[in-house]
Write a structure and sequence with these properties.
By secondary structure, the protein is α+β, with helices and mostly antiparallel strands.
Amino acid sequence: MGSWQEELLKAKLITKKQLKKNLRAKRAEDSASSDQAQEGLRAKGAEDKTTKESAQGSPSSPPATASTALGKVDFPELVKLVQQHRLKNIDGGRQFYFVNSKGVVRYIWVSPEIEGKLEAGELAIVELEERGEVRLVPKKIAKKILSYYPDIVCFFNKDE
């Protein structure tokens, strides 16, 4: 206890119960103010991080829009495009290895027919989500994605 609190207690101006209640309130107030200060620091740190990422161009998260000579295309529109044109029922008995956008070697299970199409450049592997889920898309869609967001196309044998 501080000296002024002891004097108030000795003078019987407050009881021990009131003193404890005041101490709890003061601790809660101090805790709340330190929490607010920490939140302010976190918010400032998050602002600095997003500012740095936008200045550097974060490779892990693609920008909301990409501008090209053809105009602007939103990333959500490309996600929708991939979802509409993705191949379904690709499971098979073979492992097809590829390198994802983070440089990690991964594989998917494909049928021999799909493996041939991937090797021939008729299909491409696209990774959209942070969870690492991949989709197979046709050549036409892969070329469109490459023109806007080349980092999300993991595997595509282009005919050059």
